[in-house]
# Entry
Amino acid sequence: MGANSLPIILLVPLLGAIGIALTGRWPNVRETISLVTALALAVLVFSWFPEVLDGARPRFTLSEPLPGLSLALSLEPLGMMFACIASFLWIINTIYSIGYMRSNNEKHQTRFYICFALAIAAAMGIALSDNLFTLFLFYEILTLSTYPLVAHKGDPKTIASARVYLGILIGTSIGLLLPAIIWTYVATGTTTFTLGGIIQGNVPGPAVGLLLGLFVFGIGKAAVMPVHRWLPAAMVAPTPVSALLHAVAVVKAGVFCVTKIIIYIFGVDFLFSQPSAQWLQYIAAFTIISASIVALYQTNLKRMLAYSTIAQLSYVIMATVILKPLAEIGAAVHIAAHAFGKITLFFAAGAIYTAAHKTELWQLAGIGRRMPITMAAFTIGALSMIGVPPTAGFVSKWFILAGAFQAENYLAIFTIIASTALNAMYFLPIVYFAWLAPDAPDVDMNHGEAPAAILLALGVTATLTIVFFFFNQPLLDLEGQLVQSLPL
Amino acid sequence: MKLLGLFNYWVFAVLLMIGLFALISRQNLIKKIMALAIFQSAVFLFFITMSKIENGTAPIIQAGVDNQIFSNPLPQVLILTAIVVGISTTALGLAIAVRLYEEYGTIEDNEILALDRSA
Amino acid sequence: MNLADHLPALQVAVPLLTAPLVILLRAGFLAWLTALVASLASLGLAILLTVAVLETGTQEYYVGGWEPPYGIALSVDGLSALVLLLITGASSLALAGGRQSLRLDIDNRRAPMFYGAWLIAMAGLCGIAVTGDAFNVFVFMEISSLATYILIAAGRDRRALSAVFKYLIIGTIGATFYLIGVGFIYMMTGTLNFADMALRLDDVIETRPVIIAAGFITIGLALKAAIFPLHIWLPRAYTYAPNAVTVFIAACSTKVAIYVLLRFNFTVFHGNLLGHSDLFSVFIIPLALSGILLASAIAIYQGNVKKMLAFSSVAQIGYIALAAGLASQAGLMAALLHMFNHALAKGTLFLCVLAFILTSRSAIITDLHGIGRRMPWTMAAFVLAGLSLIGVPGTAGFISKWYLIVAVMEVPGWGVPLVMAIIASSLMAVVYLWKFIEAAYYGEPPPGGDTAALEVTLPLRALIWVAALSNVYFGLFPQLPLALAQSGTGTLLGGLN
Amino acid sequence: MTTLLIGAFLLSLLVITAVAIVRATDLFSAVMLSGIFSLLMALNFFLLDAADVALTEAAVGAGVATVLLLAGLRLTPPTEARGRSLRVLTPAVIAAVALLMIYASFGQPSLGDPQAPAQQHVAPWYIEKTPELVDIPNIVTAVLASYRGFDTLGEVFVVLTAGIGVMFLLGGGRGKPFSRLDSNVEEGLSRHLIPKVMARLLVPFILLFALFIQFHGEYSPGGGFQAGAIFVAGIILFSLVRGERLTLAVIPPRVLLWMSAGGALLYGAVGLAGIAMGGNFLDYSVLADDPITGQHIGIIVIELGVGLTVTGVLLSIFHAFAARD
# Structure
């Protein structure tokens, strides 16, 4: 396929959105279009995989509004992986959404599917962005298109939370990320992602740390403390949206952006040589530990999962700033691994809400006996979060840990071990209670499993979480290309 | 002599400022329109002063008279236009003032403002 | 006779001479149609002129066949072409989209007068943009001002009258100050032609009258351009004018004053007054900065959506003034681009507001709660134009903000604080726009309000979307405004090199 | 020297009158004072060798403006409310600006200085070339109508705009009908013998004078604008004496509207004729085979256009005010 067909990847979800808008009156047609679009997108994205694996780097310039500042798309290993994950999980999420939205009789379903398709288009744009300008553009579109999803319910409490969501994401992006991009442009004359980075020699040493800070905190979607507040706030959204935020697109886009910027703008080698950039790993470590501790104290299932996500995101950040080849691979793989695990967990939470209308942890006692499939999937997801083999989480943690040893970075090693223990402390009790504890008193237990569409979706993701443990070589090969130039 | 030659410009400055002062300090809209007229008249004086040449006459060529000194026609032309602009502004301002009186029952600026605020 | 040679004169003559015909008409509809046709014809002329400027450079035209400085010369360069496109485009957009709204505001018998005034206002603004003569600018400024007063006074709210009276007083003071300045320059140079003035000022630089002239002209035009804190006439005038009129004047009338300000300060004074650019910067930048920050903050607290956008205009004028005040190549580029892009965004926003008011009969935000659910198409266009106003990439607003930030980064020592001020104001723009957008989408409609009202007619919706999409188009393909701004910057700074 | 002293005396009177206008609380007195102000200004202009401007200022400032202000006052309260608070800042700033301008005046060429830059560049060219290029005695008219004809076109449209504005706001033209015309009360001063006789004698002469000014503008001070203003003064006098109803019967509002628009169109048509005949916009030289004849034709026609518009607009404005209750 020629590079000229790259924009089709963006066009497919956009056309899907238009189709959904036009057929909003007939739910069956509308959802068929959603599903067909998702499938078409995934096929399209995966058809690029072999070429990129063979080293092709297709590039397409849409327009160049200002010299050195163009709207351009390109495919490289990191973006390829993100596009694959997002497009694939969109299919599953669509199936799940259909079941969830119908069972819960949600309103404004057409708007929901339109915004969802727009969000996916934006995520594809982020994955394919060839430079910071394009990245920023799609980053903002993603924020805006997910706002109506977060505010879906429309009651005052939801609106207030959605305002926090939007306020933090737009505020950080305009207040910090945009200046960082402009700084980069003024200093280097370009914003194009280049392997090995473009900063070296253009920004004086101490300022590199500052620039890094502008980028990392400007990308609010990566939820590094203290700009993580939007993620728990966004928990007011319907569960498919939470899945979208946590696994398919939003937070993944955040860490993806950070990783991409560190690899392609700063350059791993260069950043490793800069003492002023070392602060980031402390922040990441702090975020991992404190978010895990906060998660320990949550009583609401979705909020707990949200804090777990914050911790897991900083894993990726931390892995990236270990700045060793194995760790970079680990960072990339963790984006995928966490996506599979976390989407499973959210699907399970949504299934519980749909079937039993339970949201609090104490209500879950004994639920495994009534919803065995859901809880089995939940268990697999939880194990992946902790990093227990044979789940996806183990693969990425293994690489990160190996990278940390390679760098002799004891802070990272300690953090990973400590957080693994904390993860176990807040996930395992739930698993234990769900399967083994007696039924919770004063709770209605007259319910069965969730609808078939929901079960199908979470079954698939749970299976994938395990399959990924055994079958991950293509991804490792792909991401290996990122670090070919680096000494192992 | 030199000072007397600049007297016109001083009067221009003083008239201009009298007009501006009245525009700011008077609340009556009709008074404001008159102040605007004074303000603009000052500028007319300024331009016409510029056009004067010693021992000159109005710039109208008379047959059979040679070597006349004429005053500068250009500022005069500009001021003819400016006078017309001035009267047009006055007319429009008056019409608005009349409509304001019909709507508010007053033509004092501060009272109109108070009525607007209370609305 | 080749009409293509007469484009600069026709640009003014066509709308100006159609106006007397319009006032003789009896029916409001015919008057509107004639005005629209004349406006579209002017837009066509402006496009032809733009093409000519881009192909062959500055277009000179001697009215009456008298060459300058004796006669009046018209001179159209890239900057003039940019302003002409704005004026004629805004007028056509507002007339085409404003038919229904204007029919509600103005009764049929008075409509011919109204549309006549509209054409005269547009012709006056075009006249300012094409002329190369300082006094001719004054004449056209007064024509457009007087006509604009009529347009604003046509507002249905009685507050339109008190607003327009204030505007009349301040506008006349501004124009008179300008005239005084021109008088002082004439006194020292004996000429009224811009180009000739720039040449002859060289002999009399640094004399007191010339410095006084620079002061009078700058302050007079700042009054007309509503540069903070001389903006006091603007918010009420924009708010209480008929909605279609607001679309028109918000997009172009202050821009034209800024155009003259730039023309004078750069082509005439810049090369001639020692340290003029420093003085100009010292005068204008603090005002611009306070405008950017304070007006944005005030906009947040407005309960009337038109007033909110009006205060936003004051802030945006601050951006233009700030960029121009930097007196650098990049700064001027940013100023010219922002004139164009802000007009696009504000025109679209006010057009959307016109549509909202058409269905809900109110501009008060609490009455507009839930309007986004009833008018999804118009609201989506509003959001799009709002993003351009904020300066989100992919929209036209981003291009000019980018240039602005690059330009302020060049200022030694002050780059970072200035960038922070710009970003703070952008964030405030997010806040005030989002306050409205959120209320429109999720707010509860007021009890007793007319909730049955739905979208406006399809043609108006289509027009709104054309306007909204042009914000995106010029964000992705800004070659046209860039080329015009580049050419304009070239002529403005020509005096320096 | 004597002229200078007389000038200084008149200027001092001007300042005193201006202060009196600002201080007067009775608006009728203020209007009368502003009429005097304009007359004094016109005298000054005359002393400064600006005959055309003096004539215009007298006709417009003392005549038309006074009538309009009185017409406006008839519809609004006649006294100004007092009791406003004055801050110290305003007078201080204003005094400072005045002093600054006086200070700046020392860098200016003094009155009548033939070496002043303003007298050098463009102005001598007009005086020198006019006999050869336009060939009319009144150079002011030549500059106004030909060299800077574009400005004058604009001026006509300023007047037209004011007319449109007043008619739009107060009715008139085809807008709101003149409400007062339905009643029979309006008879003016026709029962009083002396004004009636005086007016009957005066009005024809005024109108005749206006026509003279109109068509003699190339030779002596005057032109379309002044003529229009004087013509209007005559008509207003007529309507004061014979009542507005009769006046409007003689010249109905529709005719006034056609005059206003027609004058402006006539002017524009001359401009377009220039283009049509191969010249530039408003180029009169091409209107006839001989450029100078062309100039003469152009100037006469546009002056007629100016006169028509000014008469139509000013009368419409007057009627609009007069007809309002």
User: Anything to note?
Assistant: The mean pLDDT of chain C is 89. The CA atoms of residues 118 and 147 of chain C lie 7 Å apart. The two ends of chain C are 38 Å apart (CA to CA). The longest strand of chain C covers residues 59-62.
